[in-house]
Structure formats: C-alpha cells, structure tokens
Amino acid sequence: MKNFVKILIAVLIFLFASACATTKNPRKKKKTVIHVETTHLGKNKYFFSKKYQKSLNKRATKNRRRNKRR
Fold first, then answer.
1. Whole-model pTM?
2. 16-32 in b/e burial notation, b at 16+ Cβ within 10 A?
C-alpha cells in the first residue's frame, strides 16, 4: 500500500508538471527594425534603401501567402 501511494504521488506530480508546461503561450518574437546610416555604405546603399526594403517586404509577404496555399 505504501508503494502504491508513492507511485500515485509521483504520477500525479508528473501529470501536474506536464499540464502546467502546456499552459505557456509560445509567441514569435517581433522582428526589430534596424535603422542603418546609409551615407557610409557605398555599394550597400541600394540594399538598405527604403524603396528596396519595402519591395523585399512585399515579396516576402506574397511568398508567405503563396506557400500557405500549397
């Protein structure tokens, strides 16, 4: 009987711990926007330009939507 109670308590603790672990809500971290000083970049000036970054962002969202549908 003593062994049964010990096993039962161990199982209950394990079940309680696993139940608490699933209650956490995992969220993706929001990407931080990096502001770069473009005056000293030279060739990379185009890559960091607002226009090009905006087009990259649009292309990425379009690809995300298209890949979801597949």
1. 0.37
2. eeeeeeeeeeeeeeeee
